[in-house]
């Protein structure tokens, strides 16, 4: 997957979690926590959805790297480069 | 072999099931009753739809709200806000002799009511609000502090303390007389700071959404499959034995049957078991030939108590205690114009009842006492709400026997045992409690409980 595809995949996960939010205005540089008020349970959800959908395993010490869209895509790019979209 | 076996298809069991099935766990919900819903189910009688419990869904927050239990559970269950179709209450009230406090889903109303009736307590109320906002949900030590002790330090008007406690105890206190401060904070937020709402179609809408989702995700629901025993090997739960003798294996077991009840499934009745709850209710349901507002009753819920002291105890010298009660009219919510009015006017009243005394009655006595207490409950309530008695066209009533018969909770205790197990753990590895006895009660509370326990003990591993 390319970074653009990874971004779309993460967006799809976020849309599933926060179904009432309009994510078209999401700012990639700002923390999810601030924009969407996701709590720690919701972060666990992002991790679990990635595992469920793409079999990507993210160790707990890396969770902080999923803070914003930009950092998430950057972190996932090497992990997901061999996965087909 | 299941990844997880869940005992009970009430709100908490179904919510846990959805969460686990969503993440591809092989999960099975076992329910002894012929239908889902547990303490908050629904039925049809004389061609009318009834809810077993539902007065109101608590914890209401408007669409788009990101904080709070409702928003959290919608995200975790992957539901949209619309899926619960919640319509807000009109207005509720706490009625004590000579004093009335109105409240709705905006804390400003309660604040101004307190300023009007208890002008000296305005600052104290703000102090209390501050403590509730600061309170952190799961600290066991703070959780079990005495609410009465804390409130009597903050307020100098005992009557206001009693009045504030009345709705919160009625909607979620398993302990007699006093309340754990943690439970008080949870209930305060869910009722006074968030608020009441109801789906036009009642609790069946929520339950049907839950069960449909669970099945779509591949979860298995087995009705008429009661769990008789939990099987253990070397201190670890390994499966269950059903009432019909069938054995089912599971790696983890979540039980919403209650703490005492679940321990009995492990150890039988011979060993000492934790103390079950004492508080059970009767509920009378009167169907009217008109909307309640046409007889001047437009309150959503009225919590009444006929003396300055609020009595929250199991009655000891009589089948029921009707000095205090809750009058709910499901008609009095702000339903969407396209829904219009509910087909029938309904007045539901809850009063305290003594489970053992009801259990001892033989059939003719049971029927007679039911009729008697139906009338006494109404008689007590009409001191605080419009007299609706000449408009009743149909009625139903349930007693502690009914609650026990359909949920198997000891003593028909609606809010479960007084000692909550906040972390859901049991002495047995692989067996966890969810729902009422984990500490969260009510519809929203029990759903949150199911989610929390599923997350913590199954998904996080
Ligand atoms: C009259 C009444 C009015 C209420 N009104 C409201 C209200 O207006 N608003 C609100 O938010 N809450 C209300 N509640 C409270 C709310 O209904 C409960 O807090 C909530 O439904 C509890 O859900 P639960 O999943 O924890 O437990 P339960 O609903 O008790 O679910 C447990 C399930 O386990 C099953 N079970 C038990 N033992 C076994 C066994 N051995 N094997 C298999 N299955 C078993 C039971 O049949 C039951 O279905 C009311 C309750 C009552 C009784």
Give a quick set of tags describing it.
heterodimer; A: 85 residues; mainly alpha; Non-ribosomal Peptide Synthetase Peptidyl Carrier Protein, Chain A; 4 helices; 55% helix; B: 461 residues; alpha/beta; FAD/NAD(P)-binding domain; 3 domains; seven-stranded mixed β-sheet; 14 helices; globular; binds flavin-adenine dinucleotide
Helix and strand topology:
The complex is a heterodimer of chains A (85) and B (461).
Chain A: H1 3-17, H2 32-36, H3 40-54, H4 69-80
Chain B: E1 2-7, H1 11-22, E2 27-30, E3 42-45, E4 48-51, H2 69-77, E5 86-88, E6 92-96, E7 99-103, H3 107-117, H4 122-134, H5 140-143, H6 147-154, H7 158-170, H8 181-194, E8 197-199, H9 203-216, E9 220-222, E10 227-233, E11 236-242, E12 247-255, H10 259-267, E13 280-288, E14 301-305, E15 320-328, E16 345-353, H11 355-360, H12 363-381, E17 392-398, H13 400-407, E18 431-433, H14 442-459
Parallel strand pairs in B: 1-2, 1-12, 2-9, 6-14, 12-18
Antiparallel strand pairs in B: 3-4, 5-8, 6-7, 10-11, 11-12, 13-16, 13-17, 14-15, 15-16
Helix pairs in contact in B: 1-9, 1-14, 2-14, 7-8
Bound molecules: flavin-adenine dinucleotide.
Flavin-adenine dinucleotide (FAD) is lined by residues 7-13, 30-33, 38-40, 53-58, 226-227, 256-257, 261, 281, 283, 403, 407-409, 414, 435-436, 441-443, 446 of chain B.
